[in-house]
Amino acid sequence: MKKEKLFLPNNGPFEDDKFYYRYDKVSRTKMRLVSLIDKSVFDDQIKEQKLKVYTVVILTILIYIGVAIVLSKVISKKIDVLLVSMNQVMDGNLKVEIPIKTQDEIGNVYLMFNDMCTMLNDNINRIYVSELKQKKS
Q1: How many structural domains compose the chain?
Q2: How do residues 123-136 score in pLDDT, each as one tens digit?
């Protein structure tokens, strides 16, 4: 395809290195539509959009990191409560009860831990009472 020289009205010949251009044929006519965009303006807009995209990506990553840190600290505190209570049970205190404040998985673990401690305490008391009755008889 033969490249034609463009002439801009009142400005003289078109300089290829200063503009981005595009030819479009106008349907049902012999005319062509030529779109011109100043390269420096277009490149500046592209740089501006890239900067906005990079900023959004970096902010999103920082927000996700912040949320991950907060969640890990919350979960870690809940697990620490469980570990402290387990150490008390290991030391012989079967009357430990963890207050349940949430209905999530950790709350279910707390509930089962409390039930386990109650059952252990009840079984030990039942066996102790049974042994006392055997000794009396």
Answers
A1: 1
A2: 998 998 888 888 88
